[in-house]
Amino acid sequence: MTNKQFDGVTAVMSGGSRGIGLAIATQLARGGANLVLLAKTDSPDPRLPGTIHTAVEEIQAAGGKAVGVVGDVRNDEDVARAARTAAEMFGGVDICINNASVLNLTGTEELPLKKFDLIQQVNVRGTFALTQACIPYLKKSPSAHVLTLSPPLNLSEKWLGKHPGYTLGKYGMTLLALGFAAEFKEAGIASNCLWPETTIATAAVKNLLGGDEGTAHARNPQVMADAAAAVLSHTPGYRSGKTLIDVDVLAEAGITDLTPYGGVEPLDYDIFVDPR
């Protein structure tokens, strides 16, 4: 997936300084895409690798063009500026990627309302705001896609009872993505969700889900990057309104050997994913 299939295509992404978002952005850049990243990480954080500036450098090194917009997906003007920057620098928006997300697995009794609000503001409101800002440009694109990194709606008691505050935030993202698919079907805009089958070896997983041992049993972010590129390489009419799992997308694309994506057996299934 390294040909120039994304030549001239412009993607706007929330987050993207590191982890899955950066892997997806870099993969699209290898295909010739232009990237506009909206992220807060202007300065290095000792707990997390990378800033919006190092991300732009990586994307450019991969063969794409990139602009970093330092801002917060919770700030309406920052969101509008990201979409406007894409239009001014690259002529429009073809892809909107809702990547920014707060991970907090605290139970109901222990979750402070301030953190509950943060989850909903970034995950749900941020997804709505960025998509809303991109819609006028997406309507003019022949290859319009919205891709939201959120899970299938698994309503089993196990997941409903784990961490309702976080579950609401992620399922809210999914419901919005499915809603966009229905609302903008006639406008030719595809909207889908993408979620990993297993945990992914990112700083978030290391810090919040088990340290080095947790990341050892996780695949690397490239599995999501390849799956995202496969989804976004199709015309909008090919598929919309779906909650997709990375390995299923890759299997459809003919990629069944997952060993290059790493991870020590047994791999850990991701949140909201049941063993299959």
UniProtKB/TrEMBL annotation:
<dbReference type="InterPro" id="IPR051935">
    <property type="entry name" value="HSDL2"/>
</dbReference>
<keyword id="KW-0576">Peroxisome</keyword>
<dbReference type="InterPro" id="IPR002347">
    <property type="entry name" value="SDR_fam"/>
</dbReference>
<comment type="similarity">
    <text>Belongs to the short-chain dehydrogenases/reductases (SDR) family.</text>
</comment>
<protein>
    <submittedName>
        <fullName>NAD(P)-dependent oxidoreductase</fullName>
    </submittedName>
</protein>
<keyword id="KW-0560">Oxidoreductase</keyword>
<keyword id="KW-0521">NADP</keyword>
<dbReference type="InterPro" id="IPR036291">
    <property type="entry name" value="NAD(P)-bd_dom_sf"/>
</dbReference>
<dbReference type="Pfam" id="PF00106">
    <property type="entry name" value="adh_short"/>
</dbReference>
<dbReference type="GO" id="GO:0016491">
    <property type="term" value="F:oxidoreductase activity"/>
</dbReference>
